[in-house]
Specification:
The protein is an alpha/beta fold and 202 residues long. Helix content is 46%, strand content 15%. It has helices spanning 3-11, 57-70, 81-87, 89-102, 132-135, 137-160, 166-169, 175-184, 195-201, and strands at residues 18-24, 33-39, 73-79, 110-114, 126-129.
Length: 202
């Protein structure tokens, strides 16, 4: 089943607003985690819409604008590295997700959450959807909004902290990033509770 048919099948049960929810940036050693919530119209078809990880940067950027234009509602929330270090990445991700949902213009009757866990604090009808960003159009749309938003932030951080080359790896623990950490130490956007950095600092 294609992702648009998946969503339409749910809409055909009589629902008006289904929100897809996804995040970007759980794994990196630096920067924030971003989460997006998107409600798409029932009968919409957006060519090439797919899980953000399966798309080129150029295609994601193009779809980012189309999704914002076509969506019935969307919101993106950022939780920075200091909060991640305080409450851990899982709770920070749930916080970003719940804040994004709370800012939607329409109250969703069903939230499709990418992954295998529901959002604990969200008092709405929700369903955890494994590989949701490949199965559901609204979750795929959320994955793109979250990914592009976070990548753009990391490009801005790359200008501030040039020695880490965030523009190349977006904060993930690549060989180059680890080498830069060993040479220059941490900067203000590093997640100091993440194992590779914690071990360096101990």
């Amino acid at each position: 089943m294609d992702p648009f048919s998946f969503d339409k099948k749910i809409y055909d049960k009589g629902l008006r607003f289904i929100a897809g929810i996804d995040e970007a940036g759980r794994g990196p050693l630096a920067g924030p985690v971003a989460a997006a919530a998107v409600i798409l119209p029932k009968d919409i078809i957006i060519p090439d819409l797919n899980d953000s990880k399966r798309l080129s940067e150029k295609k994601r950027e193009k779809l980012f604008d189309i999704i914002k234009e076509k969506a019935l509602a969307y919101a993106v929330e950022i939780v920075d590295n200091t909060v991640i270090d305080q409450i851990n990445i899982l709770h920070a991700t749930f916080l970003a997700m719940s804040k994004a949902v709370s800012k939607l213009q329409h109250k969703p009757e069903l939230c499709l959450v990418d992954g295998n866990r529901k959002i604990p604090s969200l008092k709405l009808n929700q369903e955890a959807l494994i590989e949701g960003d490949a199965r559901s159009a609204c979750v795929a749309a959320a994955s793109i909004l979250a990914k592009v938003t976070r990548d753009r932030l990391m490009l801005e951080y790359a200008k501030q902290y040039a020695v880490y080359e965030f523009e190349k790896h977006k904060g993930y623990g690549t060989k180059k990033h680890i080498e830069a950490l060993k040479k220059h130490g941490v900067c203000p956007i590093h997640r100091v509770t993440f194992a590779p950095i914690r071990e360096m600092l101990s």
